[in-house]
Amino acid sequence: GAAELGPYRHYMQKEIFEQPRVIGDTLEGVTGIMPELFGDGAYKVFKQIDRVLVLACGTSYYAGLTAKYWIESVAKIPVNVEIASEYRYRDSVPHPNTLVVTISQSGETADTLAALKHARSLGMEHTLTVCNVATSAMVRECKLAYITRAGVEVGVASTKAFTTQLAALFLLTLTLAQVNGRLTDEEEAAHLKAMRHLPVAISSVLALEPLIIAWAEDFARKENALFLGRGMHYPIALEGALKLKEISYIHAEAYPAGELKHGPLALVTEEMPVVTIAPNDTLIEKLKSNMQEVRARGGQLYVFADVDSRITPGEGVHVIRMPEHYGLLSPILHVVSLQLLAYHSALARGTDVDKPRNLAKSVTVE
Ligand code: G6P
């Protein structure tokens, strides 16, 4: 009801703004990296595994894709991420030393539960879930669990569940790295410090809302949009496009920016807004040349640029300055701005933001 919404117009907006708090809640009590944070016996399991298989659907699948970048780069363990509804029906090559990780807000998604059972039937017994509902079937079915503390998420389009999943998956990354002998005490301390500072960093992204509202007015008049990201921000581009299409019904697609020339560039005209995630990382110069490819075809760039990535606004180049580059946790900051862009574009189009047509909050049948 209205009382619960407080100053917000929709649950989605309220949930976006709850992110600093619920990320803090999810990481509460994490004073150091300890396998037991994932349940009794976690150390023994983490010692035995030498690969990770992530199973999930929708937004949770994109959290898994982001985690692949983290785990492979920090813990040096190979990761496969599979869409649950595909994995359960394909022939795959199982390996007993696999940590099977399901990611689910509800813990009741039929495809993800079935994929988990399928993995187990193939002899993979080491199971862990990152889940937002402690009493769910998923938590009962998995040996290990990390319960995110996003609280009840009402908006069908997932927001705070996603960023709390990312926080939990980063913690899993550090834990696997530690067990694998890949994390020095100094690195652990630095990562923990960055995690503790996340609520403040997210708040500074939320403060960009007025600038994003101005962009959303342009987007509301479009029927298509492209989202570009590279590296660990590619899954964030996918999530940004998903958010926009789910609630505003604008057709949106995401590409890793280096893939532009292999197809989507054919769609770029003056009519095409191209949302670009521009973190100040090692790929920034390559990204700048991808941006030029778009400008050369008249495409309109809407760039979320870390303040230190030195991208200046100009003809056809709109820039919103994000905080300084936030290292490995940067995807968590960048997705928040894309959530706001989707929300305000939908609001400007007058759609039913919290209950988009044809979609359900949790899909408990196949
Ligand atoms: C539905 C929801 C999505 C969610 C997906 C997976 O499609 O609308 O927001 O990402 O299910 O749900 P889960 O509860 O397993 O994370």
Question: Keywords for this structure?
Answer:
366 residues; alpha/beta; 5-stranded parallel sheet; globular; binds 6-O-phosphono-alpha-D-glucopyranose
Please describe what this structure looks like.
Keywords: Aminotransferase, Cytoplasm, Glutamine amidotransferase, Repeat, Transferase. It catalyses: D-fructose 6-phosphate + L-glutamine = D-glucosamine 6-phosphate + L-glutamate. Its main location: cytoplasm. It is found in: Cytoplasm. There is one protein chain. The protein is an alpha/beta fold and 366 residues long. Helix content is 45%, strand content 16%. The chain has helices at 2-5, 11-17, 19-26, 42-48, 58-75, 84-87, 110-121, 137-141, 160-179, 185-206, 209-219, 234-248, 284-296, 330-349, and strands at 51-56, 79-83, 98-104, 126-131, 144-147, 224-229, 251-256, 273-278, 300-306, 317-322. It has a five-stranded parallel sheet, with helices on both faces. The protein has a five-stranded parallel sheet with strand order 7-6-8-9-10, with helices on both faces. The protein is globular, with a radius of gyration of 20 Å. 6-O-phosphono-alpha-D-glucopyranose is lined by residues 57-60, 104-106, 109, 112, 156, 158, 359, 361-363.
| Beginning-to-end CA distance, first to last residue | 31 Å
Q: What topology, given as strand order, has the largest sheet?
A: 2-1-3-4-5
Biggest sheet character: 5 strands, parallel
Strand percentage: 15-25%
What structural class is derived from the secondary structure elements? alpha/beta
Query: Which ligands does the model contain, each kind named once?
Result: 6-O-phosphono-alpha-D-glucopyranose
Q: Element order, helices and strands?
A: HHHHEHEHEHEHEHHHEHEEHEEH
Number of helices: 14
Mass-distribution shape: globular
The overall average pLDDT, rounded, is 97
In angstroms, what is the radius of gyration?
20 Å
Low-confidence stretches at least 5 residues in length (pLDDT < 50)? Answer: none
Tell how many strands the DSSP assignment holds.
10
